[in-house]
Amino acid sequence: MKEMIKITASLVIIFVAAGLIMAVVFAKTAPIVKIKKEQEEAAARERMMPDADNIIETGKWELYGKKGKYFEGKKEEETTGYLISTYGKGYSSYISILVSVGKDMKVKEIGILEHAETPGLGDEIEQDYFKKRFAGKSLEQLEVVKVEGTDKIQAISGATISSRAVTNGVRESVKLLKEKYSEVTE
Amino acid sequence: MSNAESRISYIGLIKNGIFSENPVFRVALSLCPAVAVTSGVKNGFMMGIAVLFVQIMANVTISIVKKFIHPKVRIPSYMFIIATWVTVTDLSMAAFVRDIYAQMGLYIKLIVAFAIILSRAELFASKQKVMPSFFDGLGNGMGFLFALVIIGFFRELLGKGSLWGYPIVNTKPLLIMVLPTGGFFAVGLLMGLFNWIDMKFFGGGGAKLGEHRH
What DSSP string describes B132-153? Predict the structure, then answer.
């Protein structure tokens, strides 16, 4: 009985102390991370839409319970294209993606903003060779296949789940943009 | 190791971690990350640095608080201390060095489950004073870093023909070396090399089946 109390006390002291340390560090760092993330996202938007001189937020949407935003890029009141932030449900994390879509509703470019996929396998989604597979794809083409080819999205070998997550996220975002804007463009 | 504490020299501890008890090549711990992240020198280096830091911090903390840890629940206690340091490292790097974090963030979270860190906590830091624990952590962390870099060096050079992402040789590379298979080859051959060096130049008997040095 006495030993049981001792064990409990020992665990409680260590866990509470460690918990407090983590809480303090989190409280100190969370606001800094939030500001820096917003700056990075704004920079990513400008990088992915170099031809627009004004990027306006036009709405919010939700995928897998995560909140995304979409934007319209304008140059002298003329719409140049759309940007949308979306998510993929990856192997070990939510993959945060930014998609640039042209007026023809075809994907122009994708950017991987944040993820925690397996190093050496899943993190290949960051590589240019994979991101380029999305360029010029329409909604119907956004599907993962395991064979070589450029008609659809070829999965990365060893990282099928991560590849599929990115593709599904992009497809959902293009679908949403199409619903919102297709009557304007067609 | 159980000899008088005063006889332990700090340089000896570092040498011990890097060479005679190298976590990967001699003790054969944490082989999973040693194979998984060493497809290139850069990955190995980043992982090694992260492990080095967590190893030192975990060793020092455990050495300081060892009096409060009840022996019957020491493993969960060690795990929690390690997890705390991993979380603190992860959060602070995400806030203050974001460009490095973008490269290393993936690796840091994995360290919680590394055998080498828990093993040094159990075998060394829980029995020793703070300074020896610090140097033991430094030695073992550097030993792990060294192992990952050297495995990464051979695998990247042979498998991709490059080093740190820069192309070096312009021939068709042996793709197998960057695949997991090549990782096992590299670890096995280097382990053999280390045993050979130990036997040839230091008079050691090499690592034998079933033998443990502690």
Answer: HHHHHHHHHHHHHHHHHHHHHH
Phi then psi dihedrals of residue A96, to 5 deg: -90, 125
Residues 6+ apart with CB under 8 A from A27: none
CA distances from B161 to B56, B84, B169, B188 (A): 34, 39, 5, 21
C-alpha angle A128/A132/A133, rounded to 5°? 125
Question: Which residues 14-73 in chain A show a CB within 8 A of chain B?
Answer: 14-15, 18, 21-22, 25-26, 28-30, 32-33, 36, 40
pLDDT of the residue at B132: 92
Minimal Cα–Cα distance from A120 to chain B, Å?
Answer: 6
The two tokens of residue A111 are 């950017």
- How many degrees, rounded to 5, is the angle at CA A112 between CA A107 and CA A113? 125
In degrees and rounded to multiples of 5, residue A92 shows phi and psi of -135, 10
Interface A-B, measured as beta-carbon pairs within 8 A, has a size of 71
CA atoms within 13 A on the CB side of B206: 12
ipTM reported for the complex, 2 dp: 0.72
- Tens of pLDDT along A115-155? 888 777 788 888 888 888 888 888 888 888 888 877 888 88
Tokens of B94: 């995400």
Say yes or no to pLDDT of B208 above 70. Answer: no
| Global confidence as pTM | 0.75
Is B111's pLDDT higher than 70? yes
